[in-house]
TrEMBL record:
One of its GO terms (biological process) is folic acid biosynthetic process. Keywords: Folate biosynthesis, Lyase. SMART domains: FolB. It comes from freshwater metagenome. Pathway: Cofactor biosynthesis; tetrahydrofolate biosynthesis; 2-amino-4-hydroxy-6-hydroxymethyl-7,8-dihydropteridine diphosphate from 7,8-dihydroneopterin triphosphate: step 3/4. Residues 5-123 form the Dihydroneopterin aldolase/epimerase domain. This is dihydroneopterin aldolase. InterPro entries: Dihydroneopterin_aldolase, FolB_dom, GTP-CH-I_C/QueF. Its EC number is 4.1.2.25. GO terms for molecular function: dihydroneopterin aldolase activity. Belongs to the DHNA family. The keyword Lyase applies. One of its GO terms (cellular component) is cytoplasm.
């Protein structure tokens, strides 16, 4: 059985963007993350060590988003996806089988009125 863990609207202040002022001044980015894994053993035993902690997912996303700066949010999203796909719980069943990351950049430098700019990436293990 697969379970889905979702984290929505994780706010990170970081320095990504094509323009110098974006890299100098920084801005808020919001990250949505969904992961699918078999956490059956965790739910049967009520044991966190057999799943992936959403707190650990949040920490990994924030640390990575604040780490290296990228011109493109496409690159940031892909790096975050790779980070999440490499996370694992305490046993093989806790391994993430599928993940989806969306990076939102609501303050993107666009001269028109808009609500949000986002990029979504997905991965799945065979």
């Amino acid at each position: 059985m697969q379970q889905k863990i979702s984290l929505k609207g994780l706010r990170v202040f970081a320095y990504h963007g094509v323009f110098d002022f974006e890299r100098q001044n920084g801005q808020d980015f919001y990250i949505d993350c969904s992961v699918w894994l078999d956490a059956t053993k965790a739910t049967v035993n009520d044991d966190l060590s057999h799943t992936v902690s959403y707190a650990d997912i949040a920490k990994a996303l924030v640390e990575n988003a604040k780490g290296e700066s990228f011109d493109l949010i496409e690159t940031l999203a892909q790096r975050l996806l790779e980070t999440v796909m490499n996370m694992a719980g305490g046993d093989a069943t806790g391994t993430i089988r599928k993940a989806k990351i969306t990076v939102h950049k609501p303050n993107a430098p666009i001269v028109y009125d808009f609500e949000d700019v986002s990029v979504t990436v997905k991965a799945k293990r065979d």
